[in-house]
Model the fold of this input.
Amino acid sequence: MIGIVSAMPEELAAVVEAMHADEVVEYGGRRYYRGHYGGEPVVCVVSRIGKVAAATTATILLERFSPRALVMTGLAGGVDERLAIGDVVIADRLIQHDLDARPLFPRHEIPLLGIAELPADPALSTKLAAAASRFAPPAEVVALGITAPRVWRGLVASGDQFFGSVEASNALREALPGVLAVEMEGAAVAQVCYEHGVPFAIARVISDTANHAAAVDFARFLRDACGPYARALVEGALGS
Ligand code: ADE
Done:
C-alpha cells in the first residue's frame, strides 16, 4: 500500500477519479480513499493547506493504513529564478523555512531532532523524476504556454506562508541558498515520515514564481493544469 497526499482537492481529484476506491474512511475531518490504482493498493487523502493540517493527516494515514511509502504531489512557487511555470521539482530534501528556535537551536533545526533538512527516499524520488521527464503536456497544459517542462531535483522549503512578492522570495533565497521551490506542507509530511521510518517522496509542479502575480497564476494552474500532472506523477510512483 502506498499513501498519496495532496493539500487541495483540485490537486488530488484526477488521481481519485482514476483509482478504484473500495472504501472511504472519514476521520478527523479528512476522507481517506482506500483502494487500488492499477494493480497497486493505495490510500489517497486531501490534507488541506499548511504544516499542521499536513502533519496530522500524514500521522493518521501512517497509523491507520500502514503504507510502505508516502507520496505527496501538488503545486509550489518557484524560488530559483531558473524555474518556469509548469516545471516539476522533486524534493531531494525539505526544510521548514519558518522554523526558528534560536538561540536555543540553530535556525531551521527541528528542536530535539537534531536536523534541519529531511531527506526524501532516493529510489522513490527517482521514479517520480522519471515520470515527470516522460510527461507529455496535454492540450489544457499547452494552453498555458507550457510545452517542454523541465524537471529539477533539490531543496524544497515549506512553511505557513504563501509567497506573493519578490521581496519575500528574495529573503527566502538569502536565508536558504539553493532552495528551488516553496510550498506549505512538504516538510511537515517529511518530518512525520522521517520520525516513523517510512520512505517518502514529494513532487511539486511550479504553478507560479512566488512574485506579485503568484495568487493569480496559482489559481489558474490549480483550475486548469494540475490534474494531468498529478496523475502522471502518481502513476510513476506506483509499481515495484
Ligand atoms: N504553493 C504554490 N505556490 C506557492 C507560493 N507562491 N507560496 C507558497 N506555497 C505555494
